[in-house]
Each structure stands twice: as C-alpha cells, then as structure tokens.
Design goal:
The protein is mainly alpha-helical and about 110 residues long. The chain has a domain of about 60 residues. The protein is globular. Bound molecules: zinc ion (2 copies). One zinc ion binds next to strand 1.
Length: about 110
C-alpha cells in the first residue's frame, strides 16, 4: 500500500538529463526546493536558471520568497517554452509546484500582452 505519496507535488526520484527550464544538459543540476523543510518537493534546474528564479524578492532570505520565485519561474518558462497558450496545469506539473495555481495564473496574465 502506498499512501500519501502524491499529496502536494510528487517527489522526484530521478534526476533529469537536462534543466527543466532552459533544457540545457548540464551535469551540475541543482535541486530547487519549493518548500524548505519539506524536502523533495521541488525540481531540478541548472545553476543559471536556479539563480534566475531566486532573483530580486525571491531570495530565500525573504520570508515571502515563494510568490516572487514562482513569478520569476513563469516569466522564464514563457521565454524558453511555448508562450502562445500557456496552461497553468502544465506549468504546475512540469516544475512539481505545490498549491500555487493562482500565483501561476496571475503571473501568466501579467506576462501576456
Ligand atoms: Zn536552465
Ligand atoms: Zn531554489
């Protein structure tokens, strides 16, 4: 019996071959945590992308870093991937995000022309 493995964001067991954001295949992928203290809810990013998502207000020293971090992620996602018709669920799944669908959809709206 396997309970509780998919509650809020799955756990990643495998390291992907490439950064989920820019798709560069770097060997030194960082694991980015969406929730510190609740390990394994997060995704693999290359160092450059990891720095990018933590830019500005999204530094983890800021107690409210999560929202600006999700906003940074969405804006980079739209740059690197199909930005014609972005879907919230696709973004939540791809980056193994916790319950921040509303933040993602606001960020998409803000980035759309
Ligand atoms: Zn990257
Ligand atoms: Zn991080």
């Amino acid at each position: 019996m396997q309970l509780g493995s998919r509650e809020q964001g799955m756990e990643y067991q495998e390291r992907p071959d490439a950064c989920l954001l820019c798709e560069c295949s770097e060997t030194g992928l960082d694991f980015h945590h969406w929730r510190y203290g609740e390990n394994k809810v997060g995704c693999y990013l290359c160092r450059d992308c990891h720095d990018d998502v933590h830019r500005g207000e999204a530094k983890t020293e800021n107690p409210g870093w999560l929202v600006p971090c999700v906003e940074n992620l969405v804006s980079h996602h739209l740059e690197y991937h199909d930005n014609v018709d972005p879907e919230v669920d696709v973004i939540l799944d791809r980056y193994n995000l916790p319950n921040v669908g509303d933040v993602v959809s606001m960020a998409i709206e803000r980035e759309s022309p």
